[in-house]
Queue: 2 jobs
Job 1
Amino acid sequence: MNKFRFAVILEDKSSLARLGEIHTSHGTIQTPAFVPVGTQATVKSLTPEELSTLGVEIFIVNTYHAYLRPGMEVIKKFGGLHKFMNWSGPLITDSGGFQVFSLGRKNHQIEVIKSKLSVNERPVGDLVKIDADGVTFTSHWDGSLHRFTPELAMQLQWQLGSDIHIAFDECAPYPSTHENAKEALNRTHAWARRCVVENHKLRITNYNRTFQALYGVVQGGIYRDLREQSADYISSLDIDGIAIGGVSVGESKQEMRDVCDWVIPRLPDDKPRHLLGVGEIDDIFEVIERGVDTFDCVQPTRLARMGILFCSNYPKNTKKYQFDIARKIYADAVEPIDKNCSCYTCTHFSRGYIHHLFRVRELLGYRLATIHNLQFINQLLKSISRSIQSGNYQDFKRNFLNA
Amino acid sequence: MNKFRFAVILEDKSSLARLGEIHTSHGTIQTPAFVPVGTQATVKSLTPEELSTLGVEIFIVNTYHAYLRPGMEVIKKFGGLHKFMNWSGPLITDSGGFQVFSLGRKNHQIEVIKSKLSVNERPVGDLVKIDADGVTFTSHWDGSLHRFTPELAMQLQWQLGSDIHIAFDECAPYPSTHENAKEALNRTHAWARRCVVENHKLRITNYNRTFQALYGVVQGGIYRDLREQSADYISSLDIDGIAIGGVSVGESKQEMRDVCDWVIPRLPDDKPRHLLGVGEIDDIFEVIERGVDTFDCVQPTRLARMGILFCSNYPKNTKKYQFDIARKIYADAVEPIDKNCSCYTCTHFSRGYIHHLFRVRELLGYRLATIHNLQFINQLLKSISRSIQSGNYQDFKRNFLNA
């Protein structure tokens, strides 16, 4: 039954970067890998075939969203997310924790509302109530009341049938005092233990199903002592991989890098490491050379739908590696988004046409942009992997960043 | 240079239906053919490759829309619509007339506004002013003032580079008195003459470009004498094909059929006939057996984006041949939209998944639905053509309609 296996293939000489393979029941992921986000059981605008063509080997679906819609009864009838979405490759689900906190939390403040209003009168998504046992929250769709516990988060992910599950954690808001961050961390650790116990039970109950791996989550905010304590504690649990959470909720990029520097050297070498919610273009080198194997981020696909396109030969007066296709100067541009890109969009369409599609808000525009941004990031990761293989990662990085 | 040629391959024994081929510089269209609408230089949500896979051999782009956005300077720089959209097959453009009238006309009444407001103060798209020479109108985008004449409509279509152009016509509102319809018809005929003259000039000027055909437009509202007069007059002009207009602006389906019955027997057999703006599922048999070769309609693609999906085994309590995928009863349905359909959507996804995509408003839903509706209609047309070939059109029709 245990088809989950992680192998380090090659370690970079100049950094903590490493090439690896995560073997799952649904196929193998070559690492380092960018994990696109398929929040509502779809990577927005793309088919599973297109994802495969783009070299996507795994994506992440949000448990919170799947739980609310289509709902678990539907997922169970289909026998899990894979069949529901018709995606045959590996899949991660998160624990639901991050969404419960972030969607319920306005301006990054937990509002513990002892509301006397009925559920129907409460503002949608406006209640998050944490206790030692779990979290009570309202649906962002209809304001209905729900409750997640570590045990339920495990049960839901087993029903979703993803290849990699994430333990239920409390993602403390940013900024948090040391005291608050510590309190949240203690809860996260207690919940992690309960997740491991529940996961064992579920593995026994579901012994005839394909193996589903469990990653624990390292938290601790921006406090080094808490992060180190968390790294050690989570590493000690009976889990298959380690996720690093809470680095995308408002920290600066430097703080995100610090967290990786504190945490990753303390993690076991033989388990895959996933960084939750990170993946802007300028983060990629930083996280890979700190020893991250996989990382997910909505940004490449979300930016695409806003018309912000990645580009190696980006115009000089714009942000590095990207430009806004909706700007007037692209209206009659006959060249592709990126002349160095081999994606479907760049080999078939001009900047001018894509500018037009965005300007008149045509559906095809969002799709062509998403294809390009995902291809760009996957192409970059392939090039990085090749440079590690051939021992010239630092040269490649320098050339790319100075281009 | 003249690569435009129409050939009738086979005439049905039991009706005026006929199989034909329209040869253009960009390829051949097997008729009868449904012509999808690519209003803003894109058939919403689909790539050119997907259209080809669906058996789409030609689609129509609206001159009015292309003229406003991206605008003719952009189109000229790209060398026409084909290169702009990366579509290598045949293409129709309309004259802009229908859009000018329908977008400018609120509640189907022509408002001839002698406004004293400046352009910026006028309601967007609220002005249509017709005179003998042409039409002045405001952009639905920004309220800016524009003017189309028959000559300009021809020039624009030559710049767009479509394979089939439509003469500039006045589409009278519905209902119109006989007097008003006659007045509009006289203008349409005068404009048709001017289109033919201008088209001759443009053909000489553009002698080294690929041939672009001109269709005249038969108008006359719901008045038999006017329609017959128009059929005779338009047939007498030096044109390559004949379009029938004004049958989708509010007439009943019976009136649309009457118009075809009055007009088509008076048209020359050796020219292709296009019915403008018609193509609901239950219209298809009606127009084909009245001798229509091609017909365009936004409905199959627009319905798709509303979640109304075509189906041969449609549920018994719904409208014939279609159902609303957003209804709750489809939430956990594991079967495809149509078990008899071989499209990408039906061979890969369930009703339940597509229901979910529509319920949470995911982009992929609009696309999968569009693929299905276009495949359904093209599959139906193929079956009709085969039944004509094998001499059992009436049997096929009876079986399909009673299924």
Job 2
Amino acid sequence: MTDIIASAKTLRPMLEPRAVAVLGASDDPTKIGGVPLRYLRDYGFAGKVYAVNPTRDTVQGMPSYKSLAEIDGPVDMAIMSVPAKLAIETAEAAAKKGVKALCTFTSGFSEVGEEGRRMQRRLADIARESGMRILGPNCLGYFNARTKLYATFSTSIDHGQPRVGNVGLVSQSGAFGSHCFVLGRERGLGYSACITTGNEVDITVAESLAYLAMDDETEVLACYMEGCKDGEQFIQALALAYERGKPVVIQKVGRSEVGTEAAASHTASLTGADKVYDAVFERYNAFRAQTPSELIDIAYMLSGMRRSGKLPGGNKVAVATISGGAGVMMADAGEEAGLDLAPLPEKTQVYLKELVPFAGTRNPVDFTAQVYNDFSVVTKNFDAIFRDGGYDAVIGFFSSLLYSERMSQKVLDALLPVRKAFPDRIFALSVIGPEKNRRRFEEAGFLLLDDPAKAMQTIAATLEIGRGFARGRRTTPVVAKAPCLQRRPYNEIEAKALLAKAGVPALPERLAASADDAVKAAAEIGYPVVLKIVSADILHKSDAGGVKLNLANDDAVRRAYDAILSACTAAYPKAKIDGVLVGKMISGGVEAILGVQRDPVFGPIVMFGLGGIFTEIMKDVTFRLAPFDEAEALEMIRSIKGFPLLDGARGRKKCDQAALAKALANLSVFAAANRDVLASIDINPVVVLPEGEGVAALDAVILTV
Amino acid sequence: MTDIIASAKTLRPMLEPRAVAVLGASDDPTKIGGVPLRYLRDYGFAGKVYAVNPTRDTVQGMPSYKSLAEIDGPVDMAIMSVPAKLAIETAEAAAKKGVKALCTFTSGFSEVGEEGRRMQRRLADIARESGMRILGPNCLGYFNARTKLYATFSTSIDHGQPRVGNVGLVSQSGAFGSHCFVLGRERGLGYSACITTGNEVDITVAESLAYLAMDDETEVLACYMEGCKDGEQFIQALALAYERGKPVVIQKVGRSEVGTEAAASHTASLTGADKVYDAVFERYNAFRAQTPSELIDIAYMLSGMRRSGKLPGGNKVAVATISGGAGVMMADAGEEAGLDLAPLPEKTQVYLKELVPFAGTRNPVDFTAQVYNDFSVVTKNFDAIFRDGGYDAVIGFFSSLLYSERMSQKVLDALLPVRKAFPDRIFALSVIGPEKNRRRFEEAGFLLLDDPAKAMQTIAATLEIGRGFARGRRTTPVVAKAPCLQRRPYNEIEAKALLAKAGVPALPERLAASADDAVKAAAEIGYPVVLKIVSADILHKSDAGGVKLNLANDDAVRRAYDAILSACTAAYPKAKIDGVLVGKMISGGVEAILGVQRDPVFGPIVMFGLGGIFTEIMKDVTFRLAPFDEAEALEMIRSIKGFPLLDGARGRKKCDQAALAKALANLSVFAAANRDVLASIDINPVVVLPEGEGVAALDAVILTV
């Protein structure tokens, strides 16, 4: 974490410069080199601003410097808006001048072919050699809302400056970042800063997130990303945000096949498998949004919550509405989003019935439009719900009521005492109306969401993030003691032996070199036994006739041994055969699959799923970053759809989930300890026996790099 | 269908009255009885308007009639806004006056207890006896946008009259209907009419939909419902809309457990199982929206499409963007929504590369912000995409570009020729900006969606509806020839025999009354065989020791017979035993479950799923309304997640899907033919054998009412 804090601190001159120069400043205030100059001059930035343009004496009425060198004081940050062919010399000049941060609009780098890539490498060298941080190239710039530092050529500032607030937005894509920014602005979101990273020759999304995580003005991090190349740095940034109690919501694109293809052609970089990001986000409590509006809605909720205090740590939500139908719909959406719509206590329900005789009082509470006859009933309803129900969040549905000034005021007056009495809970309203009236509610501490069904999803996301903080930091198990993986082939017996040493148990087994040997081994292990060919050259053992199950006596073992050898020799005449494995035959239990894959960006990722069709047809699997502890392993186990099968469904015995969790966690530690050597592990199947009887790996393949 | 057309026609006086009276008209233009009078007077309704209030001489400056009877001409429609205690006499007076339609705001009926229910039954009697149609009670009224007939006390009209358009909105809930109406109005939706049905003492959602389906001004039907009591009428309404080519999008609430509970307490009516609605919607091509904003977005798309022509019948979509990131995200969302993002032809990609050298050209097309240097490139890009790609829909992402007047105009000029050249395809834009600029694009025939990811879902929904029309009406098989089910218990042999007659094949089997009998039967059937106890009193045959599988010879059969009888007699001493079934033993194939449930509203519903965990843990099942044909049965089979198992996954043989479809369709016909007697059928398992080998029901339970 020291690394990311140190490198994030170097972004400070970029976000908080005292003197700024625009390199390639244009006299035309609508051109790329003209827009930021105009913003800096007109919108109240308090620092020094210099225009640099070698061909002019003045730019937009300001004196123009022929070069950076001509400027007589220090320049903390320079905006570079020069043609690509001048970019390198301009950047060199900036470094020489002692500029601390260079914001590079210029495009025509890695996105346009080999020459561009070469130039981009040169830019990277300049950054590394000089210590000058470079944003971009090919980015839309950034802004600091508080200081009115709009270092961007996006015209979105022209049609509305952002409200100053506590949301920091980081986007890899410029156009998309500005789209999200505008969506948020229309939504009434208050921003601290917004950074677009473009080609990321130097400054990354991770560093930007880390900077904002340390920034006192920023309390919520919203992010759009296509992928990252430095997994460790990204993880550190998320971990830092978590430590600082800053919730993170991210839209990461490229999760579909077509999308991944498009992302590859767009970013031309190795950015890790998409499913691995889910594992990373899960570990560090970052919430993955699926659409820009979801990103903005969740950021909006978090922003409001953070203004008023902590996030709640539970999952209990109450709905109160003037419309029974809306209540039903919100209950549907809430249940599907995993919320706990626990009923109100009986005595509270009795009380609510006294207030409105024909109200629905369970939860959702339908206090009906009757409340319009006596607004004190609104107060009493919400007060009772908050007071008696122990809900983490309460949402009221008031349809399009805010369109009426009069009603708007009455409802606000009725709800304010409740808001004040329970300042630490989420108090949301699903209501539509003009911005002016919405703002009055927002300023009073209410969170406003228009669509009642989406509102439930947004609340669910917020509470999930809150629970992630309440749960506390995940412990990372020590990996030092894990057994060591050599860079060499492992046959099945060796693989299982090594994994058993690592804490993934297998059954007793022996390697036999002859039929007699096999009979002797079987006697030691105890009947019934299974025989399997052992050869790194024979992958499909069963197909080759290399497996014989359920052998009950010496004679059967002897015949099986001979049959296996002759079948395998016939099928694979050139295979190097290590011998025949004699193992304990067990029946019963549920088959699971444990696996490890090495992700190019994030290292070893552990997979868990049930055997056969569950994994192969239903794709019912889950992934986590290695290493993790048993508690997290248990979360994995419980998260798959087929979990009931391990939990005693259909009259089965409950399986030994504790042993399975232990094996999974041990596997993750082994994988992490050997991350440099390990390519993949496939333990398929692992039999999960009834409670107390443990688990056993029946087959295992380990591949090294 | 004749029925629904006839009854829908009787709604005409309600929607197109020449003379309207407000009963209980209030002098206060903000009160429930005052608002509609003010609307009728001030907003341009061209018909006659009478105010009726026995206690006043004038109401809002209009002469007040003491009673309806005093009015000297005919009154087609009356709005009733009187206290509950006056409702019955007022309705009677209206019927006597010859009023054709009564719109009843009055609340205090079935929603408030026994006395209210009694009054509501009386209202229903008045409607039936007089032929006067009654809307409500406890409804928010309705409007006809074209004639400015605002028969509602919703103040939502005050803050903005609806644009006149082609969307008809029907809502059971008043508050929620008005919420949807306002959402749509903010979205720029044009309405033909909007009807809220409240307690539905007489006029139902179904009749309202049917009326609008026949209304020439209405081209798109949007609906919010909690449930219906007359399944046949609802089905007829959807079928009518389909016949008339009017797309229907419905939000039906109550799909979750909490939601269903809330709906039950809210509507206090038997409204059918929620999953059955999915089957109904599927059959009649109604699209089920999950949130109000989805409902409105889809209605918006359909509305725009219907203005410009037919809905496309395919699923091919192209995305073209100024932002690579947005393209990736839209590809993700599109693939997840099931869209076919087929790549552009090679030669078109070459052409697009010539236009913008570093563009992404596959699909999504990323023509980059470079196009702003030469807007003719925008024209050329979209023209090539439409011309060469054969896409049903094309969507362009332009971020927040519409905020700039100048850019807005340039893009509009660039896109217009393409819109004109391909008028029959969906041309959507994901873009944000002020309403004025959006409207200019909309008037030019573009469909505007703000969130790019949601836009893909909306397009997918629209295309799904289009394909439903392109596919043509589903054929309903003739049910007359199906065998007849008696109202009596059926044991397993009888059930399978009857189902076999209905076209759900079983294996050869005999009922044996003695061990000798069983041996004889086995010889006829051919070894190996299975023996099973036959008794309507023994439900769990295996648990009782009543099943013996895989018997290979006479001796085994004899022993099994005796073992079964003694085990079952021990376990169920009082059971009436019909004998022992001797059946053919088969192995292989995939196990499926076929079932029928009788829904209280919609009658027999057929279920299909795979056996065991697929149905019980993964809930991987699908439902359709009986009867249906083999083509629809095949759709069912293909729609489950486990379908690959029937289609040759994991090295299996491909299963006999045709035979399975035939059995499913036959079952549906049998169920429909016996709808009055049938309670449920459970055929579990049905073994689906390899292609050409058919299917066989291995067990079946039929229950009658």
